[in-house]
PPM-type phosphatase domain-containing protein (Blastomonas aquatica), 278 residues
Amino acid sequence: MPLKELASVYDPDDDANADWIVRSPKAFFILDGASSLLGESIEGLSSASWLVRQIGKKLEAFEGPSVEAGMHSILEDIASQAQALDGASSKSDPPFCCLIGCIEHDDVIELVSWGDCQAIVSLGEDASCELFGFNSVALLDDAITRAVTAEKRAGTEHLEAFRKYVPQIVENRQKRNVDRGYQILDLRPPYVGIPERRFLDKRLAHRILLTTDGLFRAVTCYGMATLQEVASIDSQERLSDLLHRMREIEGGDKGCDLYPRLKPRDDVAAILLDFQPE
């Protein structure tokens, strides 16, 4: 039962988007980049946008079996490229990348994740579903979100409150690939964090939605859809509608007052996969 792409969303649809979708012969990947907080760019792109595109180019040729096996050398090569380019990201705060992948093997589907992306697995027509992907980035950011929200309740504007906690954000970002920190893909040794992994019997899975946390906010931040409702999405129209309704909510809450969050709006990339009989 080979995987088939049913739908995808990508917003904004230009080089500003630091999320990325990769389609390879035996797998699909979603990448979510985080820029250097120093605001540096590489080859005219934000450091995060540049990084996900570089990793994506390498993964387009992926044919298995293990994405983890080759990732160390991929990131080491990209780190060398970044340091050689004008505007290369700072050694003290280079960009990093989160990834979720769906890899097709003979009888099973492998899900693998670093960072803050999710897979929503629909297990059948009865709307049962499972969530894969622990958001290790949000775990650290949640405390800052609560602190920023408290500042705003005392009368501080969102941007001013956010700037006050930038040192804490920078401190969190140093917890890369360590215990109780971010398990991600980095441009500094050891480069590759500890991934989550799950194997699914092809006979049990029905559909899989791979998404960055930008779209999963519809569930976790805005409460505009349940996990089961997102798992029931089965067309381009319904996936696009979810994104459209979420952007309307964000447009009406630019100050992050109704829905506390650090970013008023986040990049989005998602791809919906179906299992088709051979």
